[in-house]
User: Fold this.
Amino acid sequence: MGLGHHRRYSMGFQIGDRLKIGDHICTVKFVGKLPKWPDSHAYGVEWDDPSRGKNSGTFQGQSYFETLKFNSGSFFKDSRLEEIASRGVSFYEAYSRKFRGSAEEFNEIRLGSRVIEAPGFEKVENRYRNRNSLERAILDHHAVNDFPLSEAQWETMREGCVKVRHLDLSYNLLSDFHQTCVLLTHFDNLESVDLSRNVFTNGWDVLDDFIFPGVRELIMTGNELGIEPLQKIIGCFPNLESLDLSWNQLTKLNEKPVSFPSTLKTLGLNGNFMTHVPTSVSDLSLQTLHLSHNLLSNVDPIITPSLRHLDLSFNKIDDWETLDLLNDRIPKLLSLRINNNPISANDQLDSVFHIMVARFQEIEVLDDSILSKKVRDDAELYFVSKVIKGEVNYNTKLRRWKTLQKKYSLQTKDQRIEKISWLESLIITVRAIDENSKAAIECTLLTNFTVRHSKKIICRKLGLSLFDHKLHLAITPEVLQVMSFEFRPISSYGVSDNSIIYVKRKSCTQDSVKICS
Assistant:
């Protein structure tokens, strides 16, 4: 049963209405009859918070509406919903309450029935004396709806709106994009607009007269936007420098390319379940691109030499060639997030982190870890040694390897052999034992790895929590030394090739302890 079939009823709510029930927001998706209530009408709603739902728009095997998220729908008897639900307040009312106030609100403050303060009209005026210089109007979670404002109401607010540069209307009850654009026309100096978590079901067909050339930043996350509404939005905001479209319905953005503004520097497309990077991003001079929580296994369309910051976390990337391609195409990439991809869960490698660092020419931040010169040098040494010994498969024809060859004097076969000998003096293999389970593994480390990083590698292999354990070096078969200073190199404790390291819970804090029998 389509949404338009029950578009009009002589009832309180209509399909597309956004309602607030308690602290939660929902969208009316169905108005009609249910067998459960033969003498009444029923409403079907979809909750913004899916955990509130009980079904997906189906009742007794019959589908009455569709939900975008599984089990995010509920049915209500008309009398019940009209009793508990609110359509919210107009922008005028929300704005006036927060930024204008009134003397009546402050004439007295009560504790129970007792008046404890009466600041008077002068204090109220002083508190709001700067309202006409307001630059940031933050009205998120204020139940703002689409009710149109009268000219008299706008006249009352005009002076307070004239200097607003940033307007936040996220998490409200807006549903008509045309009406929202009408509202925006009253803010002459807008540069940034946040409309996140409003669900716009109406008002897309009458937007030709709206252009906001001064808006540089637009945030529309979780609006359930499809590709056609997105195209209309871009038409209204032609000069955007930052656009966040995360957590929308843009799965097929690659199949139906959108012409993003050429001015765009930052683009957010997290959580759209895309299987391919949109080809249109390669036409932009982006500096920041967010693509986390998608279904990407490759990044072929990302050919943007201007890019400096890239987020590919929580995807399906499982091969090293993808990272090498990124470095080749984006040689000046400064920060990268690649965590929670299959490639970063490869248990065959002792230091995935260091190998990732070494594969990039200019990277300064990896998975939110700031990389010092020492960390980068350690990573490169480790990586070079692994490639030379054939333990890491790497295309030595890449530009990155040429750079490493030059830096570490690997120009000839004899020099490579000499370099292997030098590098191998830094590489050690230790035996790590979980004192609790007695499980034992071998790990390859660099002597200049910190205790913390070594612990991370060892705990990952043993399946232990990094934060609940400490490393203890076996000095003799019966005496262990606590490796307390986590940011010292392991060599400072005398860790060498074939050392035995015990992993113990943090409850033991002595510098040296007896091994428990």
Notes: Confidence is low (pLDDT under 50) at residues 1-10, 102-113, 118-129, 508-517. The radius of gyration is 30 Å. The CA atoms of residues 283 and 304 lie 8 Å apart.
